[in-house]
Amino acid sequence: MAGKPIVTKAPASAGFQAAVALAAGFFGGPMFAAAQDSGIDSAPGQRGRGSFFADYSAGLEYDSNIAVLDIDASSTQSDFAALFDLGVGYEHEFSDRTSAEISYNFGQDLQFDVTEFSTQLHRGEAKLTQDIGAVTLGASYQLIYSRLGGNGFLRFNRFTPSIAGYAANKKLYWRGSYIYTDKNFIGRTDRDGDMHAGAIDAFYFINGLKTYLIAGYRFESEDTLAPEFDFNAHNVKFRLVQRVALTSRPSKLRVGFRYENRNYESITPSIGAIRDDVRYRVDASLETPINDVFFTEIRARYDILNSNLAAVDFSQAVVSLRLGGRL
User: Fold this and answer.
1) What is the model's pTM?
2) Within a domain: residue 1?
3) What is the Cα Rg of the chain in Å?
4) Which domain range does residue 226 map to?
5) Contact, 99 vs 5, CB < 8 A?
6) What is the Cα–Cα distance from 290 to 226, expressed in whole angstroms?
7) Number of domain units in the chain
8) Does the pLDDT of residue 280 top 60, yes or no?
9) Rounded to a whole number, what is the distance in angstroms from the first to the last CA of the chain?
């Protein structure tokens, strides 16, 4: 299969955390944080012909400042939350060069005290890939519905065509994509709009799957009904993945950095000026298998958000511990 990766595919839970997307960018609230990224954060791969997959996890999270940046809302309070994730899907290979996949993911965080910031996500996705020569063409469609504080919050549709392949004697794997997102906020129609984005991600395999580096760039342009929310953004990310031998089964250590610079186009009435937002994130995670099914994962991240809008000018630390399984 000329353009297909040749390594084990990332589990659906990792894909959920990295690819379930709200359209704001690389940063978000307690559940939505990883959802902003339409790029890829795990080594690409493939399953066998006709493959059912499922994964699940539960855990506990501490957040020093509960926030939902999609609506520029910050509680300025810290809280603990119970976390639950479930993903199921099926992939079928029609031939050595054509495959399709459907999946559903559910995610829930339940804040202990700041319950109005509890979030829930539902995501359905369909994907199709086709090898043509040395590249793989792909297309995916996502339908996502989210709830905030027990009430309907946001629904959106996302369409992503992509092209991917190897270079440098298969030491480098690259993927380019165009992302179109149509957002509809429930009860906040001034934020309804669409987003166009282009992204490029690259994997450099330093030592096969034991050590590899991920780099990505994304440009996005968002157009909303209220002009003060229109912006263009540049996003850059780097991530190092390293297998470490802590037990008889290798653990996976990930360390990453992200940068986002948003250029808003119109004056924000509440501050009488055009917003200027720059955001930084450093994060790390350690996933350790218990056996062939179960694993534990520790995650930590620190965000610095600089803005002339006070509601989104703060720093934030988040730490979580999960126990999960994969089938």
Assistant:
1) 0.85
2) no
3) 19
4) 12-326
5) no
6) 50
7) 1
8) yes
9) 25
